[in-house]
């Protein structure tokens, strides 16, 4: 017994579309729910005042600073390493055993869950190296988490620079390094920056790795060795301990808005990049 | 000042990419201040020959050479030759014009900047001089800061010519420079070449035999990686010594 | 060798060292995890460690079995939800939508991927858990809740990799099928999906890896009871939750046992990732 193919196609299409719409609806629901409950708590005060009474009162300023500093440190460490790796893989060697090992390492690193990074960061940075719960420990750990992403996007960006440009540079008497810095990197910059922005988005939302390396101190951080709390960690603690639901929603709203801003920025940049080369 | 009438000596030169031999035992002289036309069917080794002269072949995986190419008395494949300097001396223009995504000024100044020229006044002069020699200055003098990507195909190719002239080379190598251009642009470039040969030695690879007939002083015929014959253009075209040359020129194959 | 070439060689060497950073970090992580975790495993016996049902750290009893089962159940549940919906979205995105629709849906899927796991967990706590409690009974904090939330969380992974695999199928396959009179759906079902099979399988395996490794959301909604769940409404603790919950106050052998849990997790994920990579590279080789 088989259905008329056009009928079965109609059934299939309806079912598939229903499932897709449901998926998108879930996303929309989450965003609307958080924003609806969280936006009322948002105000300039909320963003600029420090938490009071373990977060029951006040704002989230110190956590905003914590998030910014931690993310900035992670990007600062991971970008040279990641872009350097990408340059080496595309410009300085052909495919061989060494490049395969490097790529394998990067791909494996990409698959490691954040809790393991948290554990690792805890043993190495917090304990063995004695940094304690600190921005330094957290930043280093986050840097290693985002490294694979930066390597991958940088490599794609560099590979898409037309080979002809390199030929021009060489034929005009450029060295390899001059070609890389004056021709390849400037053209690959939008793609590289996209990868960086993506990593920023990931770092903002990261909790498991951060809580075990940067700790959860509520005070404004004063040095690289200060412990600090990020917005994601703060949100987790507020929600879990039931300290203040309104502030929890508010923090979540800030997180969601930040992530959306990151995604929009990435999208615009990618479109500009694609337009430039097609 | 070099007084040797032979500017480039190619002596029993062979080029290999891995196991594949792309140039076979070439023996060829390029005379100073001449335009040497290089003709031949596709995959005859014409472009490979050019890239052997400027050592761009080095960038190909598995590249290996035998024999010598002497310029100014030195084998350019000597281990202590400065390849970067060599490539400035032999400016190359490719078949497809490739302007960099920059302004006309910056494109022309690209080579000198990489060579270390920093003085803005000096760069201004170099750019103007090169664009004039390339036959482009009059058309773009008012918009040097606009993107080079906006130029027409013919203008872009003349920009590529100006770009290499900015490095004050000794030789100009051209690989099918007008193959994608309209007849007027082609004519403009051929005119520039005629003027330029007073100061430079020019090797012009072309798949358009009529272009060689128009422009080249001497012509070399390549086939399957070998040099079949070389001589004054008039003689090659009217009384070729080798039957294969004759067949190619008559269009019996190609 | 002149100055310029010497500089070039220095640059190349520096970049080589930099390029090994990812591999080195991986090696260091592996070494540290095993160094911290294996002594405890062997002190109490691997069999006890993996198959023991009692996790009482204060009494030196380290049986991970309930957590292993917990991780398996929750991951399996996540696949039950994530795979059908993920594939449906992937098929719709590649075969049954116009360019404009795609331009709207695709960014939304990417946004779904960007939502922090703690927010997902929070939504689970605030909406899903009470719903389960009221409708089906039980504490609400359950395998079911975790499966649903995790299923949603792995959707972007499955969707994006499956979309890439399906897109990589050459149009000639599709055109040939349509030319033979097949409908679009028949083409998808009998030509495209089988051809994209290894890429889709790779996406599922990677989704599995993500589900197993997820921590924060699971902690918030799974109940965290140390017992083998009796039904999908029972609370459950996964390997990841085990680590995260107790790490804050564990000391001595207890802490080492948590690292050992990390080692088990690490091994499982490495195996999954390698299988996924092999599967998708097999596809590349076959398509030649």
List keywords for this structure.
heterotrimer, B: 254 residues, alpha/beta, Rossmann fold, C: 288 residues, two-stranded antiparallel ribbon, 79% helix, 1% strand
Q: What does it look like?
A:
The complex is a heterotrimer of chains A (278), B (254) and C (288). Chain A is an all-alpha fold and 278 residues long. Chain A contains eleven helices and two strands; from the N terminus they run ααββααααααααα. Chain A has helices at 5-38, 44-48, 61-92, 97-111, 114-128, 135-159, 163-171, 176-205, 208-211, 231-241, 245-277, and strands at 51-52, 57-58. In chain A, strand 1 (51-52) and strand 2 (57-58) form a beta hairpin. The N and C termini of chain A lie far apart (50 Å). With 254 residues, chain B is an alpha/beta fold. Chain B is globular, with a radius of gyration of 18 Å. Chain B has one domain: P-loop containing nucleotide triphosphate hydrolases (Rossmann fold, 3-Layer(aba) Sandwich). In chain B, 36% of the residues lie in helices and 26% in strands. Chain C has 288 residues and is an all-alpha fold. A two-stranded antiparallel ribbon of chain C has the order 1-2. The mean pLDDT of chain C is 86.
**Major beta sheet summary of chain B:** 6 strands, mixed
**Rg of chain A, Å, rounded:** 23 Å
Which secondary-structure class do the elements of chain B indicate? alpha/beta
Total domain units of chain A: 2
- The coarse silhouette of chain B is globular
Share of residues in strands of chain A: under 5%
- What's the structural domain tally of chain B? 1
What top-tier CATH class of the largest domain in chain A fits best?
Mainly Alpha
Poorly predicted ranges of chain A = none
């Amino acid at each position: 017994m088989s259905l008329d193919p056009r009928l079965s196609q109609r059934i299939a299409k309806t079912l598939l579309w229903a499932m897709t719409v449901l998926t998108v609806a879930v996303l929309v629901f989450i965003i609307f729910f958080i924003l609806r409950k969280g936006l009322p708590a948002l105000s300039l005060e909320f963003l600029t005042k420090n938490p009071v009474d373990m977060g029951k009162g006040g704002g989230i300023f110190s956590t905003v600073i914590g998030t910014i500093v931690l993310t900035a440190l992670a990007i600062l460490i991971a970008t040279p390493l990641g872009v350097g790796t990408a340059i080496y893989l595309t410009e300085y060697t052909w495919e061989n055993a060494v490049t395969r090992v490097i790529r394998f390492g990067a791909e494996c690193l990409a698959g490691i869950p954040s809790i393991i990074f948290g554990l690792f960061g805890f043993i190495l940075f917090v304990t063995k190296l004695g940094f304690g719960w600190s921005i330094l420990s957290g930043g280093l750990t986050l840097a290693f988490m985002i490294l694979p992403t930066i390597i991958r996007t940088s490599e794609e960006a560099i590979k898409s620079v037309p080979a002809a440009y390199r030929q021009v540079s060489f034929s005009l008497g450029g060295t390899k390094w001059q070609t890389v810095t004056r021709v390849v990197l400037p053209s690959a910059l939008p793609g590289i920056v996209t990868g960086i922005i993506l990593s920023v988005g990931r770092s903002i939302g990261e909790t498991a790795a951060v809580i075990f390396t940067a700790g959860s101190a509520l005070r404004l951080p004063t040095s690289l060795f200060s412990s600090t709390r990020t917005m994601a960690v703060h949100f987790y603690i507020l929600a879990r301990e039931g300290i203040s639901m309104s502030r929890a929603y508010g923090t979540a709203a800030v997180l969601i808005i930040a992530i959306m801003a990151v995604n929009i920025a990435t999208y615009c940049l990618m479109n500009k990049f694609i337009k430039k080369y097609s | 000042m070099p007084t040797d009438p032979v500017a480039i000596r190619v002596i029993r030169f062979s080029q290999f990419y891995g196991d594949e031999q792309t140039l076979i035992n070439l023996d060829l002289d390029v005379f100073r201040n001449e335009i040497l036309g290089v003709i031949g069917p596709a995959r005859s080794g014409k472009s490979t020959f050019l890239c052997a002269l400027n050592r761009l072949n080095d960038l190909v995986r598995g590249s290996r050479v035998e024999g010598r190419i002497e310029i100014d008395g030195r084998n350019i494949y000597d281990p202590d030759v400065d390849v970067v300097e060599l490539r400035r001396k032999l400016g190359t223009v490719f078949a497809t014009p490739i302007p960099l995504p920059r302004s006309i000024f910056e494109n022309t100044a690209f080579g000198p900047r990489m060579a270390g020229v920093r003085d803005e006044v000096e760069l201004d002069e170099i750019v103007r001089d090169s664009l004039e020699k390339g036959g482009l200055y009059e058309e773009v003098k008012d918009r040097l800061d606009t993107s080079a990507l906006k130029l027409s195909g013919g203008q872009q190719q003349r920009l590529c010519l100006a770009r290499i002239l900015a490095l004050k080379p000794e030789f100009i190598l051209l690989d099918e420079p007008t193959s994608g251009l309209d007849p007027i642009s082609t004519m403009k470039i051929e005119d520039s070449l005629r003027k330029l040969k007073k100061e430079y030695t020019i090797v012009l690879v072309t798949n358009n035999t009529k272009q060689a007939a128009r422009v080249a002083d001497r012509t070399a015929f390549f086939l399957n990686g070998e040099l079949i014959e070389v001589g004054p253009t008039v003689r090659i075209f009217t009384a070729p010594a080798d039957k294969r040359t004759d067949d190619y020129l008559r269009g019996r194959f190609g | 060798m002149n100055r310029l070439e010497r500089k070039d060689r220095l640059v190349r060497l520096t970049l080589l060292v930099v390029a090994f950073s990812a591999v080195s970090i991986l090696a260091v992580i592996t070494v540290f995890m095993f160094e911290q975790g294996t002594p405890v495993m062997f002190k109490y016996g691997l069999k006890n460690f993996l198959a023991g049902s009692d996790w009482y750290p204060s009494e030196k009893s380290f049986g991970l079995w309930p957590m292993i089962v917990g991780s398996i159940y929750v991951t399996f549940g996540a696949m039950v939800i994530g795979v059908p919906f993920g594939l449906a979205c992937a098929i719709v995105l590649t075969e049954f939508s116009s360019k404009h629709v795609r331009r709207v849906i695709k960014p939304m899927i990417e946004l779904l991927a960007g939502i922090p796991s703690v927010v997902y967990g929070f939504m689970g706590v605030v909406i899903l858990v009470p719903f389960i409690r009221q409708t089906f009974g039980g504490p609400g904090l359950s395998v079911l809740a975790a499966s649903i939330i995790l299923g949603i969380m792995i959707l972007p992974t499955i969707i994006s990799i499956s979309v890439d695999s399906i897109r990589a199928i050459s149009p000639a396959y599709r055109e040939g099928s349509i030319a033979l009179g097949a409908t679009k759906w028949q083409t998808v079902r009998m030509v495209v999906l089988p051809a994209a099979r290894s890429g889709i399988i790779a996406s599922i395996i990677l989704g599995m890896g993500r589900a197993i490794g997820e921590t924060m959301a699971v902690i918030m909604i799974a109940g965290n009871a140390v017992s083998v769940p009796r039904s999908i409404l029972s609370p459950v603790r996964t390997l990841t939750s085990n680590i995260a919950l107790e790490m804050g106050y564990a000391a001595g052998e207890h802490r080492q046992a948590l690292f050992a849990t990390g080692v088990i997790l690490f091994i499982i994920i490495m195996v999954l990732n390698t299988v996924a990579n092999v599967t998708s590279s097999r596809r590349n080789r076959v398509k030649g």
